[in-house]
Write a structure and sequence with these properties.
The complex is a heterodimer.
Chain A: H1 19-39, H2 46-68, H3 84-113, E1 117-119, H4 123-136, E2 142-146, E3 153-156, E4 162-166, H5 167-172, H6 175-191, H7 193-206, H8 208-213, H9 220-234, H10 238-252
Parallel strand pairs in A: 2-4
Antiparallel strand pairs in A: 1-2, 3-4
Helix pairs in contact in A: 1-2, 2-3, 2-7, 3-7, 4-6, 6-9, 6-10
Chain B: H1 18-29, H2 36-43, H3 50-62, E1 66-73, E2 76-83, H4 87-106, H5 108-122
Antiparallel strand pairs in B: 1-2
Classes of the chains: A alpha+beta, B alpha+beta.
């Protein structure tokens, strides 16, 4: 290895293209392609799908981080060793941390901050959510009312899970219909649906391979499962159906 | 007022849909703030659904004819609505908008016509 210029230890020039390094890059790309193809299989659970999405993203970005720690300046100002295992030790956790922070903290935080909302402190709603969170064995989510007239409900699971109900939805639904909506969202939190959706968005944004493979996340199954849970808990589909009918009616006007 | 005034329709209906005009009339009658179910109770005899009232209120809000505030209540939150303009103010703004459009479109022809019309009336 011939240094291109003399400098402090972390500004040493190193050879970027060596057979060892190229094989690491090729293996990483193969893992990225293979994990993407696996995501398309329907049979995987939500947890596995999320895992595969992040495996794909990590494998896809790993070569860039790997090679950047190899270039003249070490990204973390670490000494530019030419030792492959030590470089993997640097690059892999970085890739995983960046993608996990993006998917589970930054995106939900952005989502929460961009909506004008107020926390619902109604005792009935609070005890209802508490009861079913215990039944579903999930952390009790915070319930917010969003300042929106269009009837919508959504949720996400993060460090602190949350359910968002628009004020328009709260206005036009009865108590039982509201409970049906809450149960539907709690089921989504249990399924980690939001995490799959966020991760799928990130995948579509950051992975050019997802376009080539024609990646498309189908939400239908998760919606049907959440509806099934509501019917199971309420022992009737009438409240859920009438809430859905009202939402549809509002949107068609 | 961004929406076109339909001068073939009478009164408020030249600007608003029949339901929007009914809703606004209810808000004018009641000086206190009202929520969607209050208003719905007053129009439901006509077979109007709660969602239709909610949509009408939202459209009035977008036209800046109705103000709304999120208020905490049993069951979470709801909007309380109040009219931003009284009837005469709104009617005046409809007339103003229509006349201004005529002047914008036809310029001096429209202005001369109004002069003639009003001077004839004065006589």
């Amino acid at each position: 290895m011939t240094p291109l210029y003399s400098s402090p230890s972390c500004f040493q020039a190193v050879d970027l293209v060596t057979p060892d390094k190229m094989s690491v890059v090729i293996i990483s790309v193969i893992i990225a392609v293979f994990s993407l193809l696996l995501i398309k299989k329907e049979r995987f659970s939500t947890k596995s799908k999320i895992g595969l999405i992040y495996l794909h993203l990590s494998a896809l970005f790993f070569p860039f981080i790997f090679l950047s720690t190899q270039s003249a300046c070490g990204v973390f100002c670490s000494s530019c060793s030419n030792n492959i295992p030590s470089l993997i030790m640097h690059a892999l956790p970085t890739t995983l941390i960046v993608s996990t922070l993006g998917g589970f903290i930054f995106v939900p935080a952005y989502f929460t901050l961009t909506n004008r909302k107020s926390r619902i402190r109604d005792k009935e709603i609070s005890s209802f959510v508490n009861k079913y969170s215990r039944i579903l064995n999930i952390k009790k989510p915070v319930v917010y009312a969003v300042d929106k007239s269009r009837p919508v409900a959504f949720s996400y699971r993060s460090i602190k899970s949350a359910i968002f109900l628009s004020t328009g939805l709260l206005e036009i639904t009865s108590k039982k219909e509201r409970e049906a909506v809450l149960l539907h969202e709690l089921a989504h939190i249990k399924q980690r649906s939001s995490a799959v959706k966020f991760s799928s968005h990130i995948l579509k944004i950051f992975s050019p391979l997802s376009i080539l493979v024609g990646f498309h996340h189908d939400n239908n199954k998760e919606e049907l499962d959440a509806d099934e849970y509501v019917v199971k808990m309420q022992k009737t589909s009438s409240h859920l159906n009438s809430a859905k009918r009202k939402i549809k009616e509002y949107n068609s006007l | 007022m961004k929406k076109d005034v339909r001068l073939t329709k009478k009164g408020l209906k030249s600007l608003l849909s029949p339901l929007e005009s009914d809703v606004l009339t209810i808000l004018w009658k009641d000086t206190k703030e009202m929520h969607v179910r209050h208003i719905h109770n007053k129009v439901k005899k006509k077979g109007i659904a709660l969602t239709s009232v909610a949509v009408a209120l939202d459209r009035l809000h977008k036209k800046k004819l109705v103000a709304r505030k999120m208020k905490s209540c049993r069951g979470g939150y709801r909007y309380s609505y109040s009219a931003t303009k009284d009837r005469s103010e709104l009617e005046r703004s409809i007339v103003e908008d229509s006349v201004n459009r005529l002047i914008d479109n036809f310029g001096s022809v429209a202005v001369n016509y109004f002069n003639e019309k009003f001077s004839r009336r004065k006589k």
